[in-house]
Write a structure and sequence with these properties.
This protein is mainly alpha-helical and about 130 residues long. The protein has helices at about 10-20, 25-40, 60-65, 70-80, 90-110, 115-120; strands at about 5, 55-60. Helix 4 (about 70-80) packs across helix 5 (about 90-110).
Length: about 130
């Protein structure tokens, strides 16, 4: 089971930018969006390690909320599909990689003036 998630300083800076533009106040909500956005991309996420050098830290329960089992199932599928080792360390590495990719995509969005802009740019958010 994944216990704690710590993000990089770069991701923290991007999350702060996203928070200012969208008005969303909580890291965990933005990180869930980032994970969901990245998981919706069928390409393999980069296996590069991201440093854990920021103050953005949350427990798995805070991050996942009531969706923990769903996120774990999606991560398990992507581990097998993308060739990551499906143990706690591999799952955490994959989770962090997807969150970092998703945060980068959100931060780079020219439509990030408000939350509605996300729906225009990322149709996968519509359901």
């Amino acid at each position: 089971m994944i216990d704690r998630i710590v993000l990089s300083q770069r991701a923290r800076e991007q999350l702060m930018q996203i928070k200012r533009k969208t008005g969303v106040k909580h890291w965990n909500v933005l990180c869930r969006w980032a994970l969901s956005l990245s998981l919706s991309d069928p390409t393999r996420v980069s296996a590069k390690a991201h440093p854990s050098d920021s103050s953005v830290e949350m427990t798995w329960r805070t991050f996942a909320g009531d969706y923990g089992d769903i996120f774990l199932a999606l991560l398990s599928y992507r581990c097998a599909h993308d060739g990551f080792v499906e143990d706690e360390r591999g799952m955490l590495r994959l989770l962090r990689a997807h969150i970092h990719r998703g945060v980068g995509l959100l931060a780079a969005s020219p439509y990030l003036g408000d939350v509605r802009g996300l729906y225009r740019q990322f149709p996968s958010f519509r359901g």
